[in-house]
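Dear H.,

Thanks for agreeing to be a second pair of eyes. The structure we're designing against is below in C-alpha cell form, covering all 262 positions.
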C-alpha cells in the first residue's frame, strides 16, 4: 500500500485541535464559494477529510461519494493511487492531504486526471511547508524511526510537504489550469483556548500581509483537453485544362447539335 496511515492519522489529529477546527470552518466557506460555480453529476471526495459532508452542503453537484480506508466514514474503500472509478466519470474531485500522505504523489495526480471528465474541476488541500507554524512536525515520528533503523534506507523525502507552486507545476504538466489558490490558518497551533481566541487578529492580517505563510493552501484547478488538429491531406496541384478539341461520342454529338446549335 502506497498511502501511509500514520501520517494520515497525524493530519487528522491536527484538525481536532483549535487551529484545525478553525481551519475547517474556513475550508467550508472557501469550498462553498468554489462549488457555487461548478455544475455536474458526480463529486469524489477523498483523503484525510474524505468523509466531511459539509463540503457539499451547498453544492450544485447531483451526487457525492467518498473514498478512504475507514468504512464508517467513506462510501468506498480504496487507496488514492488506485481509484476504483472508470476514466472520465467524475465532474469534481476534492482531495485533502493526498500528496503528503502518499509514497507516490505523481500517481495520485495521474489518477485524479484519469477519473475527471474534460473540463472537470479539482480542489486540492495541502499543508503549506512555508507556514509560520509548519506541518513538518507531523513527520517527526517518521524521522525518528528512520534514524533508529540503520539497515533500511530512509524514505523521509517521500513524505515531505509540497508547496502550492510545486503542485501547480505538476498540474500544469497534466494539462490543468490553476484557477485560484487560497491560504488559511495563520494562528499558531496552541491548546489554550483563551490565547487562541485572542490571536484571532492574525487571521485578518495574515490574509492581507503574509498570505503565503498560512498553514493550509487550497488549489482550485480545471482539467483541459488538448485539442487535436485533424490531419490535412496535401492535395496535388490540379491539372490545368487548356482549350482545344474534345472527342465526343455519337450520343454526346447528337445532344450538342440539338441543344447548343442555332
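And this is the sequence the design step returned. I haven't edited it by hand at all.
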Amino acid at each position: 500500500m502506497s498511502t501511509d496511515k500514520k501520517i494520515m492519522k497525524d493530519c487528522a489529529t491536527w484538525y481536532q485541535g483549535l487551529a484545525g477546527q478553525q481551519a475547517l470552518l474556513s475550508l467550508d466557506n472557501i469550498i462553498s464559494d468554489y462549488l457555487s460555480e461548478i455544475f455536474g453529476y458526480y463529486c469524489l471526495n477523498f483523503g484525510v477529510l474524505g468523509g466531511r459532508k459539509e463540503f457539499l452542503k451547498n453544492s450544485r453537484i447531483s451526487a457525492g461519494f467518498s473514498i478512504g480506508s475507514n468504512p464508517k466514514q467513506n462510501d468506498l474503500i480504496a487507496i488514492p493511487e488506485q481509484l476504483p472509478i472508470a476514466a472520465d466519470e467524475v465532474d469534481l474531485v476534492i482531495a485533502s492531504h493526498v500528496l503528503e500522505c502518499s509514497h507516490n504523489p505523481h500517481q495520485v495526480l495521474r489518477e485524479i486526471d484519469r477519473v475527471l471528465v474534460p473540463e472537470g474541476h479539482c480542489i486540492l488541500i495541502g499543508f503549506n511547508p512555508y507556514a509560520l507554524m509548519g506541518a513538518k512536525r507531523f513527520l517527526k515520528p517518521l524521522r525518528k524511526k528512520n534514524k533508529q533503523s540503520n539497515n533500511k534506507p530512509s524514505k523521509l523525502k517521500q513524505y515531505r510537504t509540497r508547496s502550492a507552486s510545486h503542485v501547480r507545476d505538476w498540474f500544469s504538466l497534466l494539462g490543468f489550469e490553476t484557477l485560484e489558490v487560497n491560504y488559511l490558518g495563520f494562528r499558531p497551533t496552541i491548546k489554550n483556548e483563551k490565547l487562541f481566541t485572542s490571536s484571532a487578529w492574525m487571521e485578518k492580517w495574515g490574509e492581507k500581509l503574509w498570505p503565503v505563510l498560512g498553514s493550509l493552501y487550497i488549489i482550485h484547478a480545471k482539467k483541459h483537453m488538448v485539442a487535436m488538429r485533424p490531419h490535412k491531406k496535401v492535395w496535388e496541384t490540379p491539372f490545368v485544362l487548356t482549350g482545344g478539341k474534345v472527342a465526343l461520342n455519337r450520343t454526346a454529338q447528337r445532344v450538342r447539335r440539338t441543344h447548343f446549335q442555332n
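Two observations from my side: The longest helix spans residues 18-35. The helical segments are 5-15, 18-35, 105-115, 140-148, 164-173, 193-198, 201-209, 250-260.

Warmly,
E.
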